[in-house]
Amino acid sequence: MARCSPPLLRRLFCCAAKSASAAGAGAGGTSKKNIVFLGSPQVAASVLETLLVASESPDSAFQVAAVVTQPPAAKNRGRKLMPSAVAQLALDRGFPGDLIFTPERAGEEAFLSDLKEVRPELCITAAYGNILPQRFLDIPPYGTVNIHPSLLPLYRGAAPVQRALQDGVEETGVSLAYTVRALDAGPVIASEKFTVDEYIKAPELLAILFNLGSKLLLRELPSILDGSAKEKAKPQDDSKVTHAPKLNSDESWLSFNQEAKLLHNKHTHPCYCQPTLVGWPGTRAKLQLVNQNGEPDVLEIKVISTKACASCDKTRDGNEVLFSGNSLLIPCGGSSCLEVVELQLPGKKVTTARDFWNGLRGQKLLKSPWCYPKTRPKLLAS
Question: How far apart are CA 369 and CA 205, in angstroms?
Answer without folding.
Answer: 34
